[in-house]
Amino acid sequence: MSGSGGKxxxxxxxxxxxxxxxxxxxxxxxxxxxxxxxxxxLRHVASAAPRVMVVDGSKLVRRLIGDVLRxxxxxxDVVGCSGLDEARAALDAAPVxxxxxxxxxxxxxxxxxxxxxxEATGQRYVPVIVVSGDAQAHLEARRFTxxxxxxxxxxxxxxxxxxFIRGYVQPAPIPGAHVLYVEDSRTVAIATTRMLQAQQMxxxxxPSVEDALEYLRAHAHAADVPGADLVLTDVYLKxxxxxHDLLAAIRNEFGYGKRRLPVLVMTGxxxxxxxxxxxxxxxxxxxxxxxxxxxxxxKTLFQLRxxxxxERSAD
Length: 315
What we know:
There is one protein chain. The protein is an alpha/beta fold. It is 39% helix and 18% strand. It contains eleven helices and 14 strands. The chain has a five-stranded parallel β-sheet with strand order 3-2-4-7-8, with helices on both faces. A five-stranded parallel β-sheet has the order 10-9-11-12-13, with helices on both faces. α10 links the parallel β12 (263-267) and β13 (285-288). α3 (84-93) runs parallel beside α4 (110-119).
């Protein structure tokens, strides 16, 4: 299944371009206006009647996820499977458009299932979402394989699960959501900002961590503290400070938790140790380069929705 979203190529060495708050300048303005007029359909499914596979050993969980999908996509065909064998049979019967799976299955695990989906004819671009109670620990240890598109930690609760699945099957814009975007490449910044603006987000772009910290400090005691709803940052930027320093300042100097100010980190580093370090330092999630529009928008909207949900009680 090919997507309608575009990709932003990974940038090279830090650039020296000026900030592009709004990312509308010169010849890019007319091109951006044309892009805004296009229908940015970011559905991760291929048709109006998608076939979605839900794999979990628990009948209750399968029913919960199925109910969420039917609410969001009335014509969805939900295929419930209890394990690998049933999933293989379903894949042999017909292609699917999206898969959710538990990490632990009665006859295997979700990583095996993800590999099975990837190996099935025509399944290479199908989103595979792992739903697990310890997904965050697996993410930090980078134990998820490249066959897994994304994960959901059940500790966030059923309401957040509904928001997460909704974000994949039909991301709904959050008008006016404010993103502080840190990127030193003007070309990448224009393209990425355009993606976010197409979803009705407001973007403040700065080219360095130093500029981002100046902005956050200026808003630390203002009425709109912390000054943004989400931070999107690269790791290596022009200036002396990096994305690691920005994470440390947000989580320690300012004391903003992951729900108070979510941080998405863009990285082209495929080293799992380095990725784990970013998550342990306080990143909510990673967006791997080259940036794919649908995944960037889905992850951004999910973190914004999660930040807006009430904290769960300790029951």
